[in-house]
C-alpha cells in the first residue's frame, strides 16, 4: 500500500495496514478454509461419527449390519452400481458420436450445439425428471405418438430403462464435452505422418487418434459413474422406492428417523464416491500436464462434395443419431412445455398456470404455494453467490500456485463434488441444525442459513473450476513485473489477474446461481415446511398429485435457469471444455 496515499494515518496504523495487505491472501485463505470446515467437513464428519457412535456409545454395529446384509449389499448397493454402470454405458454411447460430430464437422449452429453441452450443470435434475414423466408416462407424448401410428403403447415409468435414459440425457453431453476437447487436441501432423507411411484412415485412427481419445472417454465415464451412483431426484421421480438406490434409501431412513442406519449407508457411499473422484482428479491432472496438439485436424463440411457410398453411409448414421438426439434431449423438454399448456380435455389452455395462481391466493399454509417457492429460490441463489464466488475464486488461486501439498489442497477443495447433497444435508441436519455445544454455548444454524450453506458447498467447486484454468494460463511475468514495481501479492491479484479472468468469474457465478436454483437433494432434507420450499421442491410436491401444475412449475424453473445458461454461454467461452467443466 502506498504510504503517500494515507498522509493523515498514524505510522503504526500504516505499518499494520501494510502487514495486513501483505498477509491478506493468507488470511482470506484461512477464512475460506474455516467456512469450508464448518459447513462441509464438520457436517460430513458428523455423519461419519453417527455411523460409529450410537446413544453416546462407540459401536460398529450400524456399519457391520450394512456390510453383512445381503439386502444392503446386493439389493441397494448392487442395484445402485448396476444402474450407474448401465447409465455410464448409455451416456458414453450417446456422447461419443456427438463428440465426433462436433470435432470433425463444420455446420451452422455448431457452436450453439457445443454450448449446449454445459446443460447438465445448469438444468435442475428434478425438472429433467418431470420432462421424462411427461414423455414416457401412460398418457405421455411417446404413447400419443405411438397411438397416432396405430402402434401399441408402452409403460416406461418406474422402470430401469427410464432411469438409464434420463441419466444419459444428463451425462452424455458431459462425455461429449470432454471428448470433443481431446479430439480437437489431436495433432493433425501425426495423422498425416501415419498416412504418408502407408496407414489407412482406419489404421491411422486406431493407432494415432484413439489412444489420445481413450483418456478423455475414461474421464467422462468416471465422472458419469460418480454422478449416477449418487443420483437422487431422477431415481426418486422415475423409479420410486421400488427401484431405490443408496441415495433414495438414505432419504427414506431420514424420513423414518433411523439416523444411525442412514449415516452408515452415507459413509459407505461417500467412501466409494471419494475414492473414484480422487482417481479422477489424479488421472485428469496427468492428462492436463501432457499438453495439446500443435495443429488440430481440419473439419469437414456436413454436406459432402461427392455422394460416395462411404459418404452416404456417414450421413445416414448422422441422421439416425439426430433422431436419437431429438428423442432423448428435445422430446422431454418439449413434452414438459406441451403438458403445461394442455388441459384435461386435450385443448391448449393456461389452466395449470392459473392453478398455480389460485393456489397462491387460496392455498392453506401447509400447501406448496408458487410465489414463496420462487422467492426462496431466488433469495437462496443470490445468497449462495455471496458465499460461493469468493470461496471459489480463493481456492482457484490456491490450486494454481506451486507449493508443497498443493495436490492435497486441490483434493480437499474438490471433495464436495464427490459427496452427495443428501449426505451434506444429513450432516447439517444432525449437526448445525439440531445444534452443537461449543464453549458453553449452543450453536444452531437453521432454516434459510442451513440451506444456503448446503447450496454454497455444492456450488463453489464450479467457480473454482471456471477460474482456475484461466489463472493457470496467465503469463507469470505479469505478476512478477507488478511485484518488482512494489505491488503486494494481493494487489497484483486484484489489479492484474482477476480483471484478466473476469469472464471465468462471471461464468462461475452463473454456474453457482444455477446450481443453487436447481438444488434438490440437500434442500429436501433441510427445508422446514412449505415456507422454506424452493422451486425444485415445489415441482416434486406437485408431481405427487397433478402432472399439469408440476410441468407448469417446471417451465418456470426452466425459464430461470435458462438465464444462467445464457450468461455462461456468453462469458464462459471455449475454455470450459478444456480446463474446467
| Widest sheet: strand ordering | 1-2
Q: Indicate the CATH class of the largest domain.
A: Mainly Alpha
User: Helix amount, in percent?
Assistant: over 70%
How many β strands by DSSP? 6
The stretches of 5 or more residues where confidence is low (pLDDT under 50) are 573-581
- Work out the radius of gyration: 26 Å
Instruction: Outline the biggest β-sheet.
Output: 2 strands, antiparallel
Q: Looking at this structure, what is the CATH superfamily of the largest domain?
A: MetI-like
Q: What proportion of the residues form beta strands (DSSP E)? A: under 5%
Count of all domains: 2
What sort of overall outline do the alpha carbons produce when their principal axes are compared?
globular
Q: Please state the structural category.
A: mainly alpha
- Named at the architecture level, the CATH assignment of the largest domain is Orthogonal Bundle
| CATH third-tier fold name of the largest domain | MetI-like fold
First-residue to last-residue Cα separation: 37 Å
The total of helices stands at 25
Nearest-integer average pLDDT: 82
Write up this protein.
This protein is mainly alpha-helical. The protein has two domains: 45-289, MetI-like fold; 341-576, Orthogonal Bundle (MetI-like fold), CATH 1.10.3720. Helices cover 72% and strands 2% of the residues. The protein is built from 25 helices and six strands. The strands form three sheets. Strands 1-2 form a two-stranded antiparallel sheet. Strands 3-4 form a two-stranded parallel sheet. A two-stranded antiparallel sheet has the order 5-6. A hairpin with a 2-residue loop joins strand 1 and strand 2 (57-58). Helix 4 packs across helix 8 (160-184) and helix 8 (160-184) crosses helix 10. 43% of the residues are buried. Mean pLDDT is 82; it is low at 573-581.
Amino acid at each position: 500500500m502506498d504510504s503517500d496515499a494515507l498522509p493523515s494515518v498514524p505510522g503504526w496504523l500504516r505499518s499494520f495496514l501494510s502487514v495486513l495487505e501483505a498477509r491478506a491472501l493468507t488470511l482470506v485463505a484461512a477464512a475460506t478454509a474455516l467456512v469450508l470446515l464448518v459447513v462441509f467437513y464438520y457436517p460430513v464428519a458428523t455423519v461419519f461419527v453417527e455411523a460409529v457412535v450410537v446413544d453416546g456409545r462407540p459401536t460398529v454395529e450400524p456399519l457391520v449390519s450394512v456390510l453383512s446384509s445381503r439386502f444392503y449389499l446386493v439389493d441397494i448397493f448392487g442395484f445402485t452400481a448396476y444402474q450407474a454402470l448401465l447409465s455410464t454405458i448409455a451416456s458414453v454411447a450417446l456422447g461419443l458420436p456427438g463428440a465426433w460430430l462436433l470435432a470433425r464437422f463444420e455446420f451452422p449452429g455448431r457452436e450453439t450445439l457445443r454450448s449446449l453441452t454445459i446443460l447438465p450443470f445448469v438444468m435442475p435434475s428434478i425438472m429433467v425428471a418431470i420432462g421424462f414423466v411427461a414423455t414416457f408416462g401412460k398418457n405421455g407424448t411417446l404413447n400419443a405418438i405411438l397411438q397416432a401410428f396405430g402402434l401399441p403403447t408402452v409403460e416406461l415409468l418406474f422402470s430401469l430403462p427410464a432411469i438409464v435414459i434420463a441419466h444419459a440425457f444428463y451425462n452424455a453431453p458431459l462425455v461429449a464435452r470432454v471428448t470433443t476437447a481431446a479430439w480437437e487436441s489431436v495433432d493433425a501432423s501425426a495423422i498425416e505422418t501415419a498416412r504418408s507411411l502407408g496407414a489407412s484412415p482406419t489404421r491411422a485412427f486406431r493407432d494415432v487418434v484413439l489412444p489420445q481419445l481413450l483418456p478423455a472417454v475414461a474421464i467422462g465415464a468416471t465422472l458419469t459413474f460418480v454422478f449416477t451412483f449418487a443420483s437422487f431426484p431422477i431415481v426418486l421421480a422415475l423409479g420410486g422406492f421400488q427401484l431405490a438406490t443408496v441415495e433414495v434409501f438414505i432419504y427414506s431412513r431420514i424420513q423414518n428417523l433411523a439416523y444411525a442406519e442412514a449415516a452408515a449407508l452415507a459413509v459407505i457411499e461417500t467412501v466409494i464416491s471419494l475414492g473414484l473422484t480422487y482417481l479422477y482428479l489424479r488421472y485428469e491432472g496427468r492428462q492436463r500436464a501432457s499438453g495439446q496438439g500443435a495443429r488440430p485436424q481440419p473439419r469437414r463440411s456436413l454436406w459432402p462434395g461427392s455422394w460416395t457410398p462411404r459418404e452416404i453411409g456417414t450421413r445416414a448414421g448422422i441422421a439416425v443419431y439426430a433422431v436419437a438426439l431429438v428423442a432423448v434431449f428435445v422430446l422431454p423438454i418439449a413434452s414438459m412445455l406441451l403438458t403445461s399448456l394442455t388441459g384435461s380435455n386435450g385443448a391448449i389452455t393456461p389452466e395449470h398456470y392459473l392453478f398455480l395462481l389460485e393456489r397462491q391466493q387460496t392455498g392453506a399454509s401447509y400447501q406448496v404455494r408458487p410465489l414463496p417457492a420462487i422467492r426462496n429460490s431466488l433469495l437462496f441463489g443470490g445468497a449462495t453467490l455471496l458465499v460461493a464466488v469468493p470461496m471459489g475464486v480463493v481456492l482457484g488461486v490456491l490450486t494454481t500456485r506451486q507449493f508443497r501439498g498443493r495436490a492435497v489442497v486441490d483434493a480437499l477443495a474438490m471433495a464436495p463434488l464427490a459427496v452427495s447433497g443428501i449426505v451434506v444435508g444429513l450432516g447439517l441436519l444432525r449437526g448445525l441444525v439440531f445444534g452443537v455445544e461449543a464453549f458453553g454455548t449452543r450453536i444452531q444454524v437453521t432454516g434459510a442459513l442451513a440451506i444456503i450453506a448446503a447450496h454454497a458447498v455444492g456450488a463453489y467447486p464450479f467457480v473454482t473450476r471456471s477460474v482456475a484454468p484461466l489463472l493457470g494460463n496467465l503469463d507469470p511475468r505479469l505478476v512478477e513485473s507488478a511485484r518488482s514495481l512494489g505491488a503486494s501479492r494481493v494487489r497484483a491479484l486484484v489489479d492484474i489477474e482477476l480483471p484478466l479472468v473476469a469472464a471465468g468469474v462471471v461464468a462461475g457465478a452463473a454456474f453457482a446461481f444455477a446450481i443453487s436454483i436447481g438444488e434438490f437433494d440437500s434442500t429436501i432434507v433441510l427445508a422446514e415446511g412449505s415456507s422454506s420450499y424452493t422451486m425444485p421442491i415445489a415441482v416434486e410436491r406437485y408431481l405427487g398429485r397433478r402432472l399439469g401444475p408440476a410441468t407448469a412449475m417446471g417451465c418456470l424453473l426452466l425459464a430461470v435457469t435458462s438465464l444462467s445458461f445464457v450468461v455462461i454461454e456468453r462469458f464462459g467461452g471455449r475454455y470450459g471444455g478444456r480446463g474446467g467443466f
